[in-house]
Amino acid sequence: MDIEAIIRGISIWALPVVLAVVLHEVAHGWVADRLGDNTARFMGRLTLNPLKHIDPFGTILIPLMLLVAGSPFLFGYAKPVPVDFRKLGNPKRDMIWVALAGPVTNLLLALVSTLLLAVAVQMPQGMVWMAEPLALMCQASIIINLVLFIFNLLPLPPLDGGRVAVGLLPGPMAYQLSRIEPYGFLIIVALLIFGVFQAVIGPLVMGGSFALIGWAMGA
Asked: Among the options 4, 25, 132, 181, which is catalytic?
């Protein structure tokens, strides 16, 4: 990939990636705040200011490396919003809603991006200067948000799906699953290196994105 292509890729993917990871984390904090834990609000994390959420490695370096490597879809993350589950009214139940807030936000962003893409493709020829970059960014947004939606719902702590599973499982099983969390990041890295996650979520992401983009282009 040459420098010009890299710059073009960054211009298309930068805003969708930042919005996807920032709104994912803000959603966690907002739902936790509504359910009794004001930790995120107290620490100034209930804001759309990306500087409060950007993780240099997860938000910038990983997506950039995948872009340069020519990956069919990008992945990234922001600094996790702090949540003190002890402050929640019903910690075991409310943990499920807090965990689901991030992936559900990504799904909604993918759907909104689909509608915007449908609008972009219907713009008159004289507005191609705006329609083309908008369409490309909407397609990128659909893909990155589907990646985050599907990836985060995998039932492995510390992913959101792991927290949902802990909240739904009976006590002994929930405890055993929660014990994985300190090693969860290493397990995730290993599964990524060996291509397990790509094999699992790749077809789902590509199938979902083709369906949404195809609908928008034909709307």
From this structure: 25
